[in-house]
Amino acid sequence: MDKISSSFFIPRNEQGYESIYKRIRLMPLYSFPHYKELKPHLKNLVPKVFLHIDFDAFYAQVEQRDNPNLRGKPVSVGSTTGNKGIVMTASYEARAFGIETGMSQWEARQICPQLISLPCYGPKYEVIMINLMKGLREFVPDEFIEQYSVDEYFLDITYFVRNFKQAEQLGYKVKERIIEMENLTCSVGVSYNKSYAKMATKFMKPNGLSLVTPEDRETKIYPLPVKKIWGVGTRINRRLSIMNIFTIGDLANASEYVLKKEFGINGIVFRKLARGEDTSGIFNRVVHEKSLNHGHTLTNTIYDLSEVKNEIRKIAEYLCRKLRDKKLVAGYLYFVLRYDNLRYASGDIHLDHHSNDDRILYEAAVDVFKSFPQPNECLQVRMFGMGVFSLHQDTKDCNLELFKNRVKVPFYALDKLKQKYGEGIIRIGLGGG
Ligand code: DCP
Ligand code: MG
Ligand code: MG
Fold first, then answer.
1. 123: confidence class by pLDDT, cuts 50, 70, 90
2. Which residues' Cβ are closer than 6 Å to ligand 1?
3. Which one from 146, 152, 182, 311 is the annotated catalytic residue?
């Protein structure tokens, strides 16, 4: 079995890249500034300051960081290596050739034959973001941080700076800290609303910092094409251009009535975003977290029982680590398999006690797995998925309670070791083959 990757990033078969590309491009809706959040009755907007952080060529940069031979070279990270699949991202050296996200790998190779295309390893990138959260907490408390996407954060720094100058300085400090922690560069946008901050980040990519104050609105934001507005995709862009709305300024000055007639409530949202009247705040996932999920798809199917169990173990370990990072324990587990014949088998189980112990979750998942049609040469497994629910705060005693007959494992300490020295540094025996 070779590469594994997060089910969010890798297509499950050779076809349908387009639909997958669209799927991964979807914005997390929870964070989209919804009309209700925009508080239209607020005449005098409460002044706020946001930082938006977005890594430069994220996946590609991580691969270049981890392999010095790749530095300074055109590198792409895609759904598969070689010519198949799509380019998920490309290093800035590759972008100089015209390689873009969403391009087919084949096309990319035509433009740049020396392109080094690498597979994507989702969990690795996610771990970086989990670690980074800790660094960001040095600047503002948890409730002012929102992880928006796989490589983006919003920070509400309103209460931590006195003016935009200080906001800018804080932005530089955050950038420095990220380099110190992860040796990765990012770009930062600073503005008085989330939408402008997100746009500002793009102004000086890579490794830049840009500021948009209310006075800069007409000069820096209004001339931009309207598709830069959060949520305006190709189709809406097309409809807007039919209405003679091409720039953000055009949208900001368009009639609210006409926009509402054309797009419903979204028309009003778009106009408000264009005008810098986005009053949405930080959406903090930790508070709302109801479940955690993880899945991976194998490039080669498997049927050997020990191999299957090894995959289950990997997901259990990964989910437990996520739980521990959020200081949570789970009481309920859901496990799903997809066979090569595209059929699914799924089941769930209540854990005896809430836990974030790798061994407990692994064993529970194996129990569920035992009730499925068992894999064999004619029924091979392709995809694994696991979700945990009924999440509670980890008071650190739940696990210990269970370990009466078990060797105690200092999981939190092990996580720290893994963070420092890499995933391979240590692996505990989970038992059960
Ligand atoms: N990604 C993906 N599919 C897409 C777009 C992006 O899998 N359609 C992945 C690869 C990127 C990561 O998400 O590395 C972050 O996406 P960004 O849009 O922030 O792009 P990059 O960080 O790669 O480049 P940039 O420097 O433009 O931010
Ligand atoms: Mg990025
Ligand atoms: Mg991004």
1. confident
2. 9, 21, 24-25, 54-59, 88-89, 101-102, 150-151, 205-206
3. 152
Domain spans in the chain, listed from the N-terminal domain onward: 4-57+124-275, 289-423
| CB burial readout 242-266, b (16+ within 10 A) else e | eeebebbbbbbebeeeebeebbeeb
Segment 177-215, tens digit of pLDDT? 999 999 999 999 999 999 999 999 999 999 999 999 999
Architecture in CATH of 289-423: 2-Layer Sandwich (3.30)
Q: Which of 9, 58, 182 has most ligand 1 atoms within 8 Å of its beta carbon, as the pocket-test mutant?
A: 58
CATH 3.20.190.10 fits 4-57+124-275, yes or no: no
Comparing CA positions, the residue from 152, 162, 216 lying closest to residue 187 is 152
- Exposed / middle / buried, residue 108 (Cβ in 10 Å: 0-12, 13-18, 19+): buried
**Which segments of 91-176 are extended strands (E)?**
116-119, 145-149, 152-156
Q: Roughly what angle, to the nearest 10 degrees, separates helices 358-370 and 305-325? A: 140
321 φ/ψ angles, rounded to the nearest 5 degrees: -65, -40
Our answer to whether residue 152 is catalytic in this structure is: yes
Whether residue 53 contacts residue 128, with contact meaning beta carbons closer than 8 Å, is answered with no
Question: How far, in Å, is the centroid of ligand 3 from the Cα of 116?
Answer: 22
The two structure tokens encoding residue 170:
């804080």
For the whole model, what pTM was predicted? 0.65
